[in-house]
């Protein structure tokens, strides 16, 4: 289905959970159940559903277990309607964590970004302490853990983005805590020999949430676009989902690092002007452009699986169509334009 033809949330979630060939191949290659920890957020539900669909296409029967506080009960109901098991509780509660079923495969998605500056102790507990608890609880599992390209710090757009071998230069406590998360997982991958892969993601987008949705909403409303973060990477969330599942096959000790991002470095001004064309709206800008930005180079992932299925212009067209129709949005700005690391 062309993204611009999607009219309902049901169609959108079906598209976001349609597995690419690499996801199906991964579900055939690995054995055992998969637990998704912190699965109630923006990306988790369709990722868990994709694992279910990809396993079925691979001819493999396994339990898919989604774990979250599920502050929105409708998310839990939706997952269960797709055949995904759910467990509800606080992962920082070690009694609850210990009660979870053993799973040979774990995808760690829990973390704290928005509001991080408002409660820094909780941010560090979620982003650094919890990974150590999870790594010890699932010492015998294969773990794929989400991180962020924010750990790199900004680089010139002329470089093509940070690569996995670059030294981290995190700015602000959020990014520092995310590097702390990586260090905890790396430590336990070393001492326990737990196979792990750490996924530095910049930035997953769908129609209800993401950098491009933020920009489209501002263009539609006639709000001036802040050019403080002048360049960006994006990837269709369905492609990020497929690559996450495929990455389970790459887990190793010492832990492997892998960037997940779109292949292009996008200029925010150009993106907004294209959205203005699609939405039939004039575009206004504020602030000065900067040469450096938070940018990931995903050449290593592209070498493994080829380019993402959804090109940027198709994604822009689909988002503009959705926004013009008044489609549902999550109302959670990404704040990608923040340069001082204070989220």
Automatic annotation (TrEMBL):
Residues 43-201 form the NAD-dependent epimerase/dehydratase domain. Gene3D superfamilies: NAD(P)-binding Rossmann-like Domain. InterPro entries: Epimerase_deHydtase, NAD(P)-bd_dom_sf. This is NAD-dependent epimerase/dehydratase domain-containing protein. It comes from Maioricimonas rarisocia.
């Amino acid at each position: 289905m062309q993204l611009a033809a999607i009219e309902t949330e049901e169609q959108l979630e079906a598209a976001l959970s349609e597995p690419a060939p690499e996801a199906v191949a991964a579900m055939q290659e690995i054995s055992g159940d998969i637990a998704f920890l912190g699965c109630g957020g923006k990306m988790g539900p369709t990722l868990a559903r994709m694992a279910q669909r990809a396993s079925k296409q691979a001819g493999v029967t396994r339990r898919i277990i989604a774990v979250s506080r599920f502050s929105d009960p409708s998310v839990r109901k939706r997952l269960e309607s797709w055949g995904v098991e759910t467990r509800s509780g606080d992962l920082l509660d070690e009694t609850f964590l210990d009660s979870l079923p053993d799973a040979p495969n774990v995808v760690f998605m829990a973390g704290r970004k928005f509001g991080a500056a408002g409660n820094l102790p909780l941010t560090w507990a979620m982003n650094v302490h919890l990974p150590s608890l999870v790594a010890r609880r699932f010492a015998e599992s294969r773990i794929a853990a989400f991180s962020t390209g924010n750990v790199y710090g900004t680089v010139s757009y002329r470089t093509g983005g940070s690569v996995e071998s670059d030294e981290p230069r995190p700015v602000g406590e959020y990014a520092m805590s995310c590097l702390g998360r990586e260090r905890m997982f790396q430590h336990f991958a070393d001492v326990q020999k737990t196979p792990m892969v750490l996924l530095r993601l910049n930035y997953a987008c769908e129609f209800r949430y993401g950098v491009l949705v933020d920009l489209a909403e501002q263009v539609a409303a006639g709000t001036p676009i802040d050019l403080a973060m002048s360049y960006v990477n994006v990837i269709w969330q369905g492609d990020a989902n497929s690559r996450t599942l495929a990455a389970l096959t790459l887990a190793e000790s010492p832990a492997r690092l892998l960037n997940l991002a779109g292949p292009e470095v996008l200029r925010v001004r150009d993106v907004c002007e294209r959205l203005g064309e699609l939405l039939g709206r004039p575009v206004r800008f504020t602030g000065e452009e900067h040469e450096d930005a938070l940018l990931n180079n995903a050449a290593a992932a592209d070498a493994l699986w080829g380019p993402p299925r959804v090109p940027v212009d198709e994604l822009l067209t689909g988002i503009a169509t959705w926004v013009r129709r008044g489609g549902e949005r999550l109302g959670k700005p990404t704040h990608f334009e923040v340069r001082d690391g204070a989220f």
